[in-house]
Amino acid sequence: MASADSARPGFQLPLLLLAGFRTLIDDLHAELARQGHPELRPLHGFVLQAVGVDGITATELGQRLGISKQAAGKTVDRLVAVGYLDRVDDPRDARRRVITMTPLGVDGLRRSAEIFDRLRERWAESLGPERVDALEDDLRTMAAANWFRLDVPGWFGG
């Protein structure tokens, strides 16, 4: 068991993982801004993923993100104002409004995927493709079975 004064204290591992995540996300958003999406923020990616191609209600969005309906609504308001989302009447229930992605929202998600591929290539150029593959394999081994979860915003918020 490593002590606190060890050359590799345990608290550094989550900080380094977070720093790697932050580096990728910051690089993503800098490139998204250059490609015409300066309004998108890290939280917005989770929201657009949660909305998906079929749309979602504000209540469902809050549940998927692990945040309140009010917090989800506020974020949706912002994304509607800048053209990434829209609110439409639910064709199955006129009392409900469904949040859907606009073409701009779809474009932002598509560009994000392409940029992430290029960022991964950049990491492979710096570290070597085998090391990046091994890092991903090791993280898959250590991560929970349901590692891709959209409730990170709510989890961070406490």
From TrEMBL:
- Residues annotated as domain HTH marR-type: 10-144
A Gene Ontology annotation in the biological process aspect, one of them, is: response to stress
Please report a single Pfam family linked to this protein.
Answer: MarR_2
Q: Classify the source by domain of life.
A: Bacteria
Q: A single GO molecular function, which one?
A: DNA-binding transcription factor activity
Determine if DNA-binding is one of this entry's keywords. Answer: yes
Q: This chain belongs to which protein, by name?
A: DNA-binding transcriptional regulator, MarR family
Source organism per entry reads Micromonospora cremea
